[in-house]
Amino acid sequence: MKYNVEDCEIVELPIVHTESGNITVMENQLTLSFDIKRIYYLYDVPMNAERGGHAHYELQQYVVAASGSFTFILDDGKNKKEFFLNHPNKALHIKAGIWREMKNFSSGSICLVLASLEYSEKDYIRNYTDFLNFRNRK
Ligand code: TYD
After folding, report:
1. pTM of this prediction?
2. pLDDT over 80 at 33, yes or no
3. For residue 51, how far is its CA from the centre of ligand 1 (angstroms)?
4. Which of 48, 36, 43, 85 lies closest to 65, judged by CA?
5. What CA–CA distance (Å, rounded) separates 17 from 10?
6. Are 79 and 37 in contact (CB under 8 A)?
């Protein structure tokens, strides 16, 4: 099954409001559509940096702006869609087989990623022509 950018969406996570601040929870089986195997986060990203430039064969992710804001551009080989993440209760669900670019990181932003699989370089497609060939394969 190959997913399209229309299958990727921003999920609004519930917020537990308390007088001393908010809590948002992401929990396997409850909030998330896959079980988390790995968590990583990007930080100290220079404001003019552009990251990403790859797709994954199998990996799915939820991406959250734990602090600050940034933009993800998703691409399924036919269509592109931009997502602006600027609040810790919004999680972008990126399905498998989608090319992504990231830009416009605000100063001090933290990009938290919850991933469905352990790190494997074999799961990456880092060349855009290879990506289009993969998308056009049946
Ligand atoms: P990459 O996924 O290409 O970064 P981004 O999409 O944020 O631009 O990863 C950058 C480098 O970090 C690459 O050399 C692989 C390494 N890395 C790991 O070793 N483990 C991981 O879990 C991740 C996400 C990256």
Report:
1. 0.96
2. yes
3. 10
4. 85
5. 21
6. no
Q: Could you read off the pLDDT of 84-110 as tens digits, one per residue?
A: 999 999 999 999 999 999 999 999 999
Cβ atoms within 10 Å of 91's Cβ, excluding its own: 25
Find the catalytic residue in 54, 56, 87, 93.
Answer: 54
Measured from the CA of 111, which atom of ligand 1 is nearest?
7
Cα separation of 7 and 14, whole Å? Answer: 21
Q: Mutation test of ligand 1: which of 54, 74, 94 has the most ligand atoms closer than 8 Å to its C-beta?
A: 54
Check if 54 is active-site: yes
Contact present, 77 and 99 (Cβ < 8 Å): yes
CATH number of 5-136: 2.60.120.10
Q: Which atom of ligand 1 is nearest to the CA of 113?
A: 24
